[in-house]
Amino acid sequence: MNPNKRPDDMKRITTPELADAFIAEQIAALREQIGSKKVLLALSGGVDSSVVAALLIKAVGKQLVCVHVNHGLLRKGEPEQVINVFRNQMDANLVYVDAVDRFLDKLAGVAEPEKKRKIIGAEFIRVFEEEARKLDDIDFLAQGTIYPDILESEDGVKAHHNVGGLPDDLQFELVEPVKLLFKDEVRVVGKALGLPDNMVYRQPFPGPGLGVRCLGAITRDRLECVRESDAILREEFALNGLEGKVWQYFTAVPDFKSVGIKDGKRTFAYPVILRMVNTTDAMTAQVAEIPFALLQKITNRITTEVPGVNRVVLDLTPKPSGTIEWE
Ligand code: XMP
């Protein structure tokens, strides 16, 4: 039997009962596979790695070592939430790595999107590798691989987004407890494991994070404009019942300024671009229709609360011709 093929008779996990059965089954399988050895996991705080962490904590407790790399490109509140949920509430063995300066120094002056992506990916592996080398007797590497990752990597559409590329002398046996699950099932399991809703129902977030939304060469001031405007957008969507109703919504900040006016004085500051889309598979996407009054409220909040921003614009482009991210 191919362990990477979902059995035809595997029932879709849609209810808490089915999730509980899956969790019990996986805990037994994980204990069997891992025994008394140690497991390492790169914990981003995204739904897949969070569910894998929660499963492993239940199965093997402190034999799991979670490494959370803060590369400075996470959304507002995310590193804090990872620490709070996993270290404080679940009592996990969590190594928190503040690599913000390291990433931003490497990215300084680099404007080309693919180059930025490569730097972020390579630096992530390097930081993770350094942390792994500090630890003794790790035998297993856990990954939040899900079934679409397997399907997509088999037909070559998209490379695995998970940790790959570790050097040959640092290889582990893989532990991938959710590799046969679809995203909706991972969420049902995450909910049953007691993870907070804003972690379980998170919108998709690219690996290079806000790095693809801080356009051109990343600077700390514009990165803060992206992070703060994104937080306001998410807060307003949640307050207005749109969380979970719109597939993906975020802000991007370009690397040019325009003239504005504030308190009777001329300003020269950045614009914030609002992007809100609906899609089923991210291959095509439609612009979500948002009530105009809410758009005005978001604009007002961003232009008054985010330093260095004097204008908000709305991206009305479906995919194609625009991609979802701006990069
Ligand atoms: P585009 O911009 O190509 O994005 O229309 C399609 C979807 O993929 C997300 N995306 C990523 N997801 N790692 C990910 O896990 C990445 O490197 C990455 N880049 C883009 C994007 O947010 C959108 O949902």
Break the fold down into its secondary structure elements and pairings.
Layout (H helix, E strand, L loop, with lengths): L15 H19 L3 E5 L4 H14 L3 E7 L7 H12 L3 E6 L1 H8 L5 H22 L3 E5 L4 H8 L18 E3 L7 H10 L4 H4 L19 H20 L8 E5 L5 E5 L2 E14 L7 E2 L4 H14 L3 E6 L13
Parallel strand pairs: 1-2, 1-4, 2-3, 4-5, 8-10
Antiparallel strand pairs: 6-8, 7-8, 8-9
Helix pairs in contact: 1-2, 1-7, 2-7, 9-10
Xanthosine-5'-monophosphate binds next to loops.
Quick structural overview:
The two termini are 41 Å apart.
CATH architecture annotation of the largest domain: 3-Layer(aba) Sandwich
Structural class: alpha/beta
- Strand portion: 15-25%
Biggest sheet layout: 5 strands, parallel
The strand line-up of the biggest sheet is 3-2-1-4-5
Helices and strands, in N-to-C order?
Answer: HEHEHEHHEHEHHHEEEEHE
Could you walk me through the main structural features you see in this protein, from its secondary elements to its overall organization?
40% of the residues lie in helices and 18% in strands. Helix 1 (16-34) crosses helix 2 (47-60), helix 2 crosses helix 7 (183-192) and helix 9 runs antiparallel to helix 10 (292-305). It is built from ten helices and ten strands. It is globular. Mean pLDDT is 95; it is low at 156-162. The chain has a five-stranded parallel beta sheet, sandwiched between helices. Strands 6, 7, 8, 9 and 10 form a five-stranded mixed beta sheet that branches. It folds into two domains: 16-200, HUPs (Rossmann fold, 3-Layer(aba) Sandwich), CATH 3.40.50.620; 213-314, GMP Synthetase, Chain A, domain 3 (2-Layer Sandwich), CATH 3.30.300.10. The chain is α/β, with parallel strands linked by helices and 327 residues long. Xanthosine-5'-monophosphate binds next to loops.
